Amino acid sequence: MQHDQLASAIKQWGLELGFQQVGIADTDLAEDEAHLLNWLEAGRHGEMDYMARHGTRRSRPQDLLPGTLRVISVRMDYVPPGVPDGWDILENAALGYVSRYALGRDYHKLMRNRLQKLADRIAAHVGPFGYRAFVDSAPVLERALARNAGLGWIGKHTCLINRAAGSWFFLGELYTDLPLPADAPATAHCGTCARCIDVCPTQAIVAPYQVDARRCISYLTIELHGSIPTEFRAAIGNRIYGCDDCQLVCPWNKFAQASAEPDFTPRHRLDGAQLVDLFAWTEDEFLARTEGSAIRRIGHERWLRNIAVALGNAPAGADVDAALAARAAHPSELVREHVAWAQARRAGDA
Which domain holds residue 291? Predict the structure, then answer.
């Protein structure tokens, strides 16, 4: 099979395996490397030390996997049909908002398995070849590679946007030593739009295409291990795991497609559960109800930390006050501190 024929076949096989699009990129990321290094130099990665620890391996695929010539990039839609509108949840401060990507099963294993099947199909036609599959599992500039593979452009909020599918999708990669023809990079179509910049609750998008993670609610509720800075707590509102505002407001998401993957169906009513109910979960309940979910990685302590902040921003109610009082003497100093803040805020003292 000729390389151009193989590239076409790979794209078709990817669609058959449940990916919505497949593209092929070369490995030149020099401009993106400069952007990454400037971002790190400014300290905008916060406590995500792993971003700096891997150095330029993130922007040089051949250094991560010697022999890499091309990157097969894939995307998969993740918002299932029937999920309540995100703004409706955000406007009801008694409910907990969970980022749409984390409502169902953790995507890492699902996509990695599909990528392995794609690699197996390639091997069945060309014989053994060098490859490695990645799904948020290694230092990879996945959005830059996806852009170069023609899957979309990097928007001003730094998420990837596809003209026909918006931005509600996951990305994955197969690094390979096959000299496949590369696709043309996607062109940008944000124009003068700045809705994502304007809507960010904590002004984390400090300039077009520049996000300061230290201000980002997704970072504060997921990546940050310690105390959430008090200056951001009111702005967090009822967002208890991640934040989607910049995507919710993006006009290109009117073209987003619902996912047909049953594994992405919301679990335990996380697409609109009451904060007081979520705050009542014991650690055993948390572990059981987040099994196979991306949420589990933050642990029960940070789960309670996040919800305590949201309860501090919730409407007046005896149920909220009782829920906070029940956790006021929690063994974790981190939880106690955020509960105390929430109680003070509700009393008008914070």
Answer: 195-255+265-346
